[in-house]
Amino acid sequence: MKQRKISKTNVVNFSTYLGMVIFFLVMTALSKAGVLNRSMTGLLVPICCYMSMAVSLNLTVGILGELSLGHAGFMSVGAFAGVIASQSLLDVVPSAGLRLTIAMIVGALFATVAGFIVGAPVLRLQGDYLAIVTLAFGEIIKELVTCLIVGHDENGLHILFNLTGNKTVEDLGLSDTGIAIIKGAQGTASVKTIASFTAGFILVMVTLFIVLNLKHSRAGRAIMALRDNRIATSSIGINTTKYKLMAFVTSAALAGAAGALYGLNYSSLQAAKFNFNTSILVLVFVVLGGLGNIWGSLVAAAALTILPEALREFADYRMLVYAIVLILVMLATHNPTLQSFFARLKPGKKEEKEAA
Amino acid sequence: MFGKLVPVPSGAVIPERDIGKRPILNCINLGVTFGGLKAVDDFNLMIGRTEIAGLIGPNGAGKTTVFNLLTKVYQPTHGTILLDGQDTHNMTTAQVNRAGIARTFQNIRLFNDLTVEENVTVAMDAQMKYSMVSGIFRLPSFWKEEKVAHERALELLSLFHMQDLANVKAGSLPYGAQRRLEIVRALATNPSLLLLDEPAAGMNPSETAELMENIRKIRDTFQIAIMLIEHDMNLVMNICEGICVLNFGRVIAKGSPEEIQSNPVVIEAYLGKQKEA
Description:
The structure holds two protein chains of two kinds. Chain A has helices spanning about 1-35, 40-65, 70-90, 95-120, 130-145, 195-215, 220-230, 230-235, 240-265, 275-290, 295-310, 320-335, 335-345, 345-355; strands spanning about 150-155, 155-160, 180-185. Chain A is mostly helical. Chain A has a three-stranded antiparallel β-sheet with strand order 2-1-3. In chain A, helix 2 (about 40-65) crosses helix 10, helix 6 (about 195-215) runs antiparallel to helix 9 and helix 7 (about 220-230) crosses helix 9. The radius of gyration of chain A is 21 Å and the shape is globular. Chain B is of the alpha/beta class. Chain B has two domains: about 5-110 and about 190-270, Rossmann fold; about 110-170, no CATH class. Helices cover about 35% and strands about 25% of the residues of chain B. Chain B has ten helices and twelve strands. In chain B, the strands form three sheets. Chain B has a six-stranded mixed β-sheet, with helices on both faces. The interface of A and B includes residues 213 and 236 of A. Chain B: One of its GO terms (biological process) is L-isoleucine import across plasma membrane. Chain B: GO terms for molecular function: ATP binding; ATP hydrolysis activity; L-isoleucine transmembrane transporter activity; L-phenylalanine transmembrane transporter activity; L-valine transmembrane transporter activity. Chain B: Keywords: ATP-binding, Nucleotide-binding, Transport. Chain B: InterPro entries: AAA+_ATPase, ABC_AA/LPS_Transport, ABC_transporter-like_ATP-bd, BCA_ABC_TP_C, P-loop_NTPase. Chain B: It comes from Dysosmobacter segnis.
């Protein structure tokens, strides 16, 4: 019995990894062959970032069962920390791959700290409080980054906090060789874009590895038990705060890494990009893909990132069509008749339901 | 059938075989007030190390509240709980469980989306040592401890003949099996005192008879104390050694099943006072 169960769970996990590998190979082949147009090629890295964001948010929303509305905030922390790290290491670390890795680790570390600061006091509360506080956190991060002016020269980092709103890059006192990295509300400036689809693919695989293995360990069991019944969880000797924080901070760290990759994909990026709408967008990926369903998050993130691009021909009606498609998909996936139809059609889908 | 109850210096009674050993539970003047309402007041109880004790009383007497006080779902407003001689003051629910009290719930609280086996292994969390990093990177400690937990879970489940259901979602189990699983989950935390809140609720007579056997089997196998709340008097009178009767938050009688059955105060609490002609 046990042997069969392990293999069943493994089959679902393995297919998730395999699906990601196939997606990567197909997309790489297509772009090499020149089949993909420029806008589609440009979407490859954001798709990977959003996939990673969706999988990590699924850890908080689907597996832990707490609503977080500030996931873009952690992405923002990771993005700007990552860009600062990468830009200041331009001369020291010439290898783009290594610099990108360092930037993503730095982004993850800063997001971890942010996750801890937000999570530690709030996760003791229950219900909607977390949603409200994370929502506020996202907005605060946006405003704080807007105030940030950062530059780098041979003397190291220059950081200025532009609270009054009348300071500019000139006030940093950079030497002639110095570069401005973040220009307040204008966001990052002339970033050397080193993000690649390969890096994005690796990021998603690492995210999957961490989230899936965490889910199928003692921590994952405790986290899912918490979601199912809090009182029963503490009655069996589990420190609920510890596990809540573990899930929340891991989720934040992964979002930070995704943010760093995202930030290094654009030569200029404003803090306003990581607003409430982005948090909601990622939440939509998670809900559409199915709460707790990891491969669902991947598919939803990819589909909903490509969809607006594919709908360009509808011009002004693009967002309207997008919304209608969303509603139809939601209705279809929650229709019992269709669900059982798909379950009969695909044995893999049924397995996932039992093993998830 | 059980050996007789003997009084101990505090005025309580515990089974003769547990005399000379420290009682597993000693409640002294335990009480809780909810905004002026004394839900439980002046509750004194001592339970022997291997005793099967019953807590009975009419609806609303405060029986489940006593369980909630013992497990710190509510913090007592006065009184002391000594668990194996250790004061549980300031402990949280999780800490009390690690100190030795496990419980089941009147309205079943299983982890419905986890499998039967996961419901049991999650309760062994406190006994597992491997870190989050070992779990993510599947280090040797992960495999070793998961294997031990898996084997122990199957062993516990087999006590109730549930080992074949290990991979079924707990939420899809039939009612009786859910009740049994809750007991297995509680046992997985290695308790020294097991609290069962209406274990026979909703069971038919044959299921109840099986449950009685199981409760005895648990006590004999694990050598632990069990306290149960139950309305099925047949079950209570058959398996409990000491019985404590609550009414309006106060203990109105304590003693062996025979003493309780013939106690006029208990009869009055259950049936009402006989009117003078």
